[in-house]
């Protein structure tokens, strides 16, 4: 474990992004920075995915909970920008557990560190708006794990001088992960719960927010990453069906819906998440300000 998989491209900028968890969201940033001349490296859990990402020019390392990088000094050497994108498990954040000391040692050379969290630490707000300054009161186990991970990274940042930024992501969608795809796959459900609203964010807008933060670093900052219009989930499914020219699935009362424990847990919280800070502090202009623009841009991709 931990040996690089061929695919790294030599760059001339001297900048290097390392992503613990080079997945759906992290790759959106990796592509942007690669185009700017950054070297990009990261981790994933399986060889097949590592090979696919290496083919895109990224230096890949295998890493998973209980399987740390075999040579962390070599893998992390030269890193100027660090993205932490692995969800915490019952034992906490795997990257923190395995490599907190190695990451702390990088502090003198790090220009920016980003941790991808979720809006879970805010808990249930009964549909009210929340900003980054709202009290944190997670109401699910996943939310409590996220808050614990945030606090762990904050503590390390304070002790080691890491330029940490926390990004609380709303529900992520994009190519291959959206309501159009769910309708085409026959898995979409139009579950209705009175007063339920979710905030969302297109994966490419996540990349834009992270890129903007790197251009304007503000260590210690927390940013909500979401679009302009929180909406009931059944409305999004109905709009996706409209784009496909088909009838939407029938509405199912939440109490009667057959949902997995994880899917049901999403309905335990209802809140409207404010994105004012990414607009005012980072100058971000979202490419997909609501789910409508996002799905409009995805329909051709998903149907061809």
Automatic annotation (TrEMBL):
Keywords: NAD. It comes from the Bacteria. Gene3D superfamilies: NAD(P)-binding Rossmann-like Domain (3.40.50.720). Residues 114-225 form the NAD-dependent epimerase/dehydratase domain. InterPro entries: Epimerase_deHydtase, NAD(P)-bd_dom_sf. PANTHER family: EPIMERASE-RELATED (PTHR43574). This is SDR family NAD(P)-dependent oxidoreductase. It comes from Parvibaculum sedimenti.
């Amino acid at each position: 474990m931990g040996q690089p998989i061929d695919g790294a491209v030599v760059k001339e900028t001297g900048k290097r992004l390392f992503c613990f968890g080079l997945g759906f969201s992290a790759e959106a940033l990796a592509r942007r920075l690669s185009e700017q001349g950054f070297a990009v490296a990261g981790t994933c859990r399986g060889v097949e995915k590592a090979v696919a990402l290496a083919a895109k020019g990224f230096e890949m390392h295998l890493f998973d909970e209980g399987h740390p990088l075999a040579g962390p000094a070599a893998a992390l050497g030269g890193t100027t920008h660090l993205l932490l994108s692995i969800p915490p498990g019952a034992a906490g954040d795997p990257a923190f557990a395995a490599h907190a000391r190695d990451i702390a040692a990088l502090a003198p050379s790090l220009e920016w560190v980003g941790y991808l969290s979720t809006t879970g630490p805010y808990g249930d707000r009964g549909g009210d708006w929340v900003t980054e300054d709202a009290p944190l009161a997670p109401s699910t186990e996943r939310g409590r794990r996220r808050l614990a991970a945030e606090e762990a990274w904050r503590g390390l940042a304070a002790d080691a001088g890491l330029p940490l930024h926390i990004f609380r992501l709303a529900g992520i969608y994009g190519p291959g992960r959206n309501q159009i795809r769910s309708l085409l796959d026959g898995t979409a459900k139009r579950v209705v719960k009175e007063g339920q609203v979710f905030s969302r964010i297109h994966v490419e807008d996540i990349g834009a927010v992270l890129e903007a933060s790197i251009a304007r670093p503000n260590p210690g900052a927390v940013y909500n990453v979401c679009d302009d219009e929180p909406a009931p989930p059944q409305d999004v499914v109905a709009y996706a069906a409209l784009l496909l020219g088909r009838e939407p699935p029938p509405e199912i009362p939440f109490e009667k819906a057959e949902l997995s424990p994880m899917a049901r847990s999403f309905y335990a919280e209802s809140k409207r998440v404010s994105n004012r800070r990414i607009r005012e502090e980072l100058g971000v202009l979202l490419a997909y300000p609501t789910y409508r623009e996002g799905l409009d841009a995805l329909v051709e991709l998903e149907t061809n």
